[in-house]
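Summary for the lay section of the report: proteins are chains of building blocks that fold into shapes. Here we show the chain for Transmembrane protein and then a coded description of the shape we predicted for it.
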Amino acid sequence: MSSWIRQTHRWLSLAFTLAVIANIVAMFVSPGATWIGFLALVPLIPLLFTGLYMFVQPYRAKARQAS
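The coded shape description reads as follows.
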């Protein structure tokens, strides 16, 4: 399960990077295209949860070892 979450996090980070680049390009092409800014939120929200999961893993492992 952990490796699946890590792989998902990597792909989400790639999608987020592409969405940010698309946002920057869209702002230069058409300054009124603010809706494209919300496109970056699509991968950002699951990226937050997978990142938090990976952040907590070492602390959970230490807690298991201590008990």
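Put simply, here is one thing we learned. The chain has one domain: 2-66.
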